[in-house]
Amino acid sequence: MSSSSAREGAGESSRNSCSGFARTVARLPASIVEGLSRSIARRAPRSRPRGVQVHQEQPPQAPPLAPPSPTPFVPEVLYFFSAFEQQYGGHHPFFYGCRFSEVLGIARREDKHVFVYLHDPDHPYTGPFCRSTLCSDVVVEFLDANFVSWAAVTGRGEGSGMAASLQPGTFPFCAVVAPVSGESITVLQRVEGPVTPSELVEILQRTIDEQRAAFRASTADEQAAAFRASRAEEEERRRSALRLRQEQDAAYLESLRKDQEKERSTKSIHEGIVVKPKASPKYPGQAATETAKTTQIREPTHKETAPSHRNEANTMIMIRFPNGQRRQQGFLHTDTIREIYKYVNSLGITGIGQYQLVRSYPRKTYGHQQLAMTLREAGFHPSVTLYIEKLQ
Q1: Edge-to-edge strand order for the sheet containing 364-366?
Q2: pTM
């Protein structure tokens, strides 16, 4: 396969892998997740944003005709930088010189994804990719602005473990990953084979857009679920309040019924209306004679005291005061609401002040504008409960 056909095939493969949310979940080897270790190298000052500042002394220049100095020891986490910069120079994306587990922590704090590059120095496509794509200005600026970048040499240190976890099909190999747990990562995108700088930037930008869209959709679902839960809770509170009000009304009606029965019994005793079973007449005309006698006996009683119009009341009003007291009074259905106010004022209960009458369910107030309304017009007949509501 020629270099151009391989580049086209790799680009097509990477474009086809850009759909969906998370591609695969890779389990990291024990050598990577064995715990956080100290970071050997950190981000260089802003004056050199595209390289790694390696804090180690360079061997002194050998004097002329002297034998060359031995190669200095390079820490394993910095081996990639040493090998890469010797061959391709210091102009490249900012790769963190630390363990991969520390890079995941940095990505969490900066709220970014991790760009992983596995370097195979022996692959024929590695050199052109590093010089033309990875070290190009557009790729360097894009990676430094949007990702936390990490690289390793396959076959050395953590590069071997990452190659075993990600299992690249060919090289050059790049991936966009995100942490899932302490032992796993989510592979969001894979780029295998040579690609141009514009193709690589397009793939990475599409990956960022997909993750943002998925995050917004997830956030919208969570907000919708929270709204539904809030509505359900509000509806349950409304039903509970309605049940409580119905229970209170039922208890009140039962109390009102007992009070009415007691009042009717008391009125019957005071008015002398005692119903006794009638004996059958022993002879014709006896019933008419006893009826006449009863009429003659009761006539003086009617002449002595005239019944009050309150004895003919057919509308019972229960009034509840703010201090918990209750008063019940009978009215005519033709009486006006003004009569109720007069009755409340006549009780002389302290602490009321300015007030208005309120019907609880459905809630309605009866103030001075409704004083001329009759009790039947107000819907109080045959009975109703009113509350005293203080005015500020």
Answers
A1: 326-331, 315-320, 383-390, 355-359, 364-366
A2: 0.46
